[in-house]
């Protein structure tokens, strides 16, 4: 059972060049969330949704993990079995940095799924509305990303971990989207030490015992080293 649970958001990938959502020039300042991140938007205009995720998939493929992603992979490798990484991000930078035990609660940009039969497969670089599902052949393929109004993945495993971890760390998330926004309060109620690592205070800062402010690429490696020193 993991001793340390880490929740990451778009802020951990910001220094890898991937946009966040709610910062001053974030993705939701350029696109209407209702058009590209809801099932209704997909039904209305699947080509627009595919274009949005094709562009993000290309950005992600061209990006590299930064020192924060690498530090979390080092933490997991040094404390085998003790670290659970839950991410709201759909990029694959944690995996490319070497993290193994990763729960992508909002799905994965590099995976595709069928809106009808839910079969999943590695996403091609460019997806089109006319792509047939490899399993059922219906033209209902979509990025395997969880949209607003849909149930996030791995919620049972996350709910169990939140009640039992000793340390809960949130990195680079504004704490504005549920259910992830509620994890810190639940972990704190269950007795965990909660630490927030972010560029600035967030909507949920008061839920945390400890705050480390600054860019993830510097504050996350420092925090990981402190955890490893304390684990000796
Ligand atoms: N280092 C650390 N934190 C940073 C950095 C950085 N270099 N740059 C930005 N941040 C912080 C911002 O201060 C903000 O608190 O990252 C956070 C990004 O917040 P959001 O853009 O709201 O991203 P996130 O919290 O991941 O959004 C949650 O909303 O739209 C949905 O599904 C989408 O998973 C996403 C969810």
First and last CA, distance = 19 Å
Using the coordinates above, name the CATH class of the largest domain: Alpha Beta
Q: What's the CATH superfamily of the largest domain, by name?
A: TPP-binding domain
| Mean pLDDT figure | 97
Molecules bound to protein: adenosine-5-diphosphoribose
Q: Strand count, sense and closure of the main sheet?
A: 6 strands, parallel
Helix/strand-derived category reads alpha/beta
Architecture of the largest domain, according to CATH?
3-Layer(aba) Sandwich
Uncertain parts: none
Strand coverage percent = 15-25%
Our count of helices gives 8
| Strand arrangement in the largest pleated sheet | 3-2-1-7-8-9
Shape: globular
> Which fold name corresponds to the CATH topology of the largest domain?
Rossmann fold
- Count of discrete structural domains: 2
Structure description:
With 232 residues, the chain is of the alpha/beta class. The protein has 2 domains: 1-18 and 65-106 and 152-232, Rossmann fold (3-Layer(aba) Sandwich); 21-62 and 111-145, 2-Layer Sandwich (SIR2/SIRT2 'Small Domain'), CATH 3.30.1600.10. The chain is 33% helix and 19% strand. The protein is built from 8 helices and 9 strands. The protein has a 6-stranded parallel beta sheet, with helices on both faces. The protein has a 3-stranded antiparallel beta sheet with strand order 5-4-6. A hairpin with a 5-residue loop joins strand 4 and strand 5. The longest helix has 17 residues, at 46-62. It is globular. The model has no long low-confidence stretch (mean pLDDT 97). Residues 9-11, 14-15, 20-23, 26, 88, 106, 172-174, 176-177, 198-200, 202, 215-216 line the site of adenosine-5-diphosphoribose.
């Amino acid at each position: 059972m993991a001793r340390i649970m880490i929740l990451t958001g778009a802020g951990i990938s910001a220094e890898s060049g991937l946009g966040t959502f709610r910062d001053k020039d974030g993705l939701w300042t350029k696109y209407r969330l209702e058009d590209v991140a809801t099932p209704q938007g997909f039904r209305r205009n699947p080509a627009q949704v595919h274009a949005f995720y094709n562009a993000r998939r290309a950005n992600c493929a061209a990006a590299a993990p930064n020192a924060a992603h690498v530090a979390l992979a080092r933490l997991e490798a040094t404390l085998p079995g003790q670290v659970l990484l839950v991410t709201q991000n759909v990029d694959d930078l944690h995996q490319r940095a070497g993290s193994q035990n990763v729960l992508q609660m909002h799905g994965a940009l590099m995976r595709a799924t069928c809106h009808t039969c839910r079969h999943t497969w590695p996403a091609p670089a460019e997806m089109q509305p006319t792509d047939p599902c490899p399993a059922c052949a219906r033209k209902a393929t979509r990025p395997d990303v969880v949209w607003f109004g849909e149930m996030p993945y791995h919620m049972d495993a996350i709910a169990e971990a939140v009640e039992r971890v000793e340390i809960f760390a949130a990195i680079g998330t504004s704490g504005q989207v549920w259910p992830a926004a509620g994890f810190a309060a639940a972990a704190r109620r269950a007795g965990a030490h909660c630490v927030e690592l972010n560029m600035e205070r967030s909507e949920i800062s008061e839920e945390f015992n400890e705050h480390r402010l600054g860019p993830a690429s510097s504050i996350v490696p420092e925090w990981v080293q402190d955890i490893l020193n304390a684990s000796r």
